[in-house]
Design a protein that fits this description.
The protein has 410 residues and is of the alpha+beta class. It is built from 14 helices and eight strands. It has three domains: 89 residues, Butyryl-Coa Dehydrogenase, subunit A, domain 1 (Orthogonal Bundle); 96 residues, Butyryl-CoA Dehydrogenase, subunit A, domain 2 (Beta Barrel), CATH 2.40.110; 156 residues, Butyryl-CoA Dehydrogenase, subunit A, domain 3, CATH 1.20.140. It has a four-stranded mixed beta sheet. Strands 2-3-7-6 form a four-stranded antiparallel beta sheet, with no helix packed on it. Strand 2 and strand 3 form a beta hairpin. This is Monooxygenase. One of its GO terms (molecular function) is oxidoreductase activity, acting on paired donors, with incorporation or reduction of molecular oxygen, reduced flavin or flavoprotein as one donor, and incorporation of one atom of oxygen. Keywords: Monooxygenase, Oxidoreductase.
Length: 410
C-alpha cells in the first residue's frame, strides 16, 4: 500500500491505477485529520486548503477523471462510495471534495480543446459550478460574453475554474434560448461571500460575479447534450462508455452521498457516546444506562436501517446505469428517473436517520461542536437542494409511473 506521504512524490503518469480497496485505505488515512478540523471548517465557512491538499495527495480528484489527463477513470459508484466514507468525518469537505471530483467527469464531456484549457497547464486544476442558468449569454464572434451573479458555487475558494450555467440564443429558433455550461477560469470572476447558513456551512457556496467576460465557443457544453449523455467528450472517450452516462444519473448521487455519509458518521459518534452514557436528570432517573432504554435501542435500529438502505439504493442505481451502458444499451428515460428517485430518497432516509439520533442527544447535543447535531443540520441542508428535494423528485417518478409526462430535471 502506498502511504499518503509517498503519494506526493509519485509522478501521476507512473502511479498505478488504485482499486477501490486502496482508495478506501487512503481515505481512512486522512479521515482523522479532516474530522479534527470539521468544527473549524464550519466556522470558517469554507473547506481549508489542508483538506483539499490531503484529498489531492491521495488522488481523490482523479477518481473519475480521464486517463488521458492523468485520471483513473473509475465508474461513478467508486467515487460515491468513497464520498460516503469521507462525509462521516466532515460533510462540508465531502460536499466540496465530491463535487470537485465529480466535475472532472463533467469537464470530460466538453470538447477536447476545453479540457486542454483546464488541464494542460495545470494537471491539478478543479472546477466549482453554479447550475442554475443565472443570465443570458450574448453571442459574439468566436464565443459568448457573460455578465451576472452565479450563486451556490460550492468550493469556489478551492477551484481554479467554474462551470457557469447560462441561457444561450438558439441557433435555429429566433428569440429562443437553451441552457448550457460555460467554462470560466477563476481569473475572470470575483467571489462575493454570501454564504452564512446553518447547514453545510463549511462548503463556502458563495456567489461568483462575472462582468462582461468572454468565453470562447469551445468552452461550451449544452444541457441537452450532457443530460442525454451525447457529449463531445463521450465521442472522444468512446472506449469508455461511462462517459456517455447522462449527467443527472451521476452528479446528484455525489451530492446525496454527503447526506448518507453524514448520517453514517453521526451513528458512529452517537454509538460511541451513548453506549457508555448514564442519565443525570430526575425525569429519566439517576445513573441509568441510556443503552438499556428501549427508545434508544429503537432509534439506533431506525438510523442503522435508514443509512444501510440509503447507501444500497444509491450504489445500486449507479452500478445499474454503468452496466446498461457497458452492455451497449441506451439509458432510458425511466432509468434516468429511477436514478433521480434513488438520489432524493436516499437523502430523505439520511435525514430520517440523523433526526432519530439528534432528537435524543439531550442538552449535550446542543453544543455546536457536537458532531451529531452538525450531521443533522448538514443532512437537512442537502435535502434543501432542489435536486434532492423529495417532494419535487418523488412526484416526478409518480408522474412517470402513472403514465403522465414527468415534469422536472432528469
Amino acid at each position: 500500500m502506498v502511504s499518503v506521504a509517498q503519494l506526493k512524490d509519485v509522478p501521476a503518469q507512473a502511479a498505478p491505477r488504485p482499486d477501490l480497496a486502496e482508495l478506501r485505505s487512503r481515505v481512512a488515512q486522512i479521515a482523522p485529520q479532516i474530522k479534527a478540523r470539521a468544527h473549524n471548517t464550519e466556522k470558517a465557512g469554507r473547506v481549508p486548503e489542508e483538506n483539499i491538499t490531503a484529498l489531492r495527495n491521495i488522488g481523490y480528484f482523479d477518481i473519475v477523471k480521464p486517463v488521458m489527463f492523468g485520471g483513473y477513470e473509475h465508474d461513478f459508484d467508486v467515487l460515491v462510495e468513497l464520498n460516503i466514507e469521507l462525509a462521516k468525518s466532515c460533510a462540508s469537505t465531502a460536499w466540496v471534495g465530491g463535487l470537485l471530483a465529480a466535475h472532472q467527469w463533467l469537464i470530460a464531456g466538453f470538447p477536447e480543446s476545453a479540457q486542454r484549457d483546464v488541464w494542460d497547464s495545470n494537471p491539478d486544476a478543479v472546477a466549482c459550478g453554479s447550475y442554475a442558468p443565472a443570465a443570458k449569454a450574448t453571442e459574439v464572434e468566436g464565443g459568448y460574453r457573460l455578465s451576472g451573479r452565479w450563486s451556490f458555487a460550492s468550493g469556489c475558494d478551492n477551484a481554479q475554474w467554474s462551470l457557469c450555467a447560462a441561457l444561450l440564443p438558439s441557433k435555429t429558433d429566433s428569440g429562443q434560448f437553451a441552457p448550457a455550461f460555460l467554462l470560466v477560469p477563476a481569473s475572470d470572476y470575483v467571489i462575493d461571500d454570501t454564504w452564512n447558513v446553518v447547514g453545510l456551512s463549511g462548503t463556502g457556496s458563495k456567489t461568483l460575479v462575472l462582468d462582461d467576460v468572454f468565453v470562447p465557443a469551445h468552452r461550451l457544453l449544452s444541457f441537452a447534450d450532457t443530460t442525454s449523455g451525447k457529449t463531445p467528450g463521450a465521442a472522444l472517450y468512446a472506449a469508455n462508455p461511462a462517459f456517455s452516462i447522462p449527467m443527472l444519473s451521476n452528479i446528484p448521487s455525489c451530492l446525496a452521498s454527503t447526506a448518507v455519509g453524514a448520517a453514517a458518521g453521526a451513528l458512529e459518534d452517537y454509538l460511541a457516546v451513548t453506549a457508555r452514557r448514564v442519565t443525570r436528570g430526575a425525569v429519566a432517573g439517576h445513573n441509568n444506562r441510556m443503552a438499556e432504554f428501549p427508545t434508544i435501542q429503537l432509534r439506533v435500529a431506525e438510523s442503522t436501517a435508514s443509512v444501510d438502505a440509503a447507501r444500497e439504493v444509491l450504489l445500486r442505481d449507479l452500478r445499474d446505469r454503468a452496466a446498461t451502458i457497458r452492455a451497449g444499451n441506451p439509458i432510458s428515460v425511466e432509468d434516468r428517473i429511477v436514478s433521480r428517485r434513488g438520489q432524493a430518497f436516499s437523502v430523505a432516509l439520511a435525514i430520517r436517520a440523523s433526526e432519530a439520533l439528534n432528537a435524543s442527544t439531550g442538552g449535550l447535543g446542543l453544543d455546536l461542536s457536537n458532531p451529531v447535531q452538525r450531521a443533522w443540520r448538514d443532512a437537512n441542508a442537502v435535502g434543501r437542494h432542489i435536486s434532492m428535494n423529495w417532494d419535487a423528485v418523488g412526484t416526478m417518478y409518480g408522474q412517470l409511473a402513472l403514465g403522465l409526462t414527468p415534469q422536472g430535471q432528469y
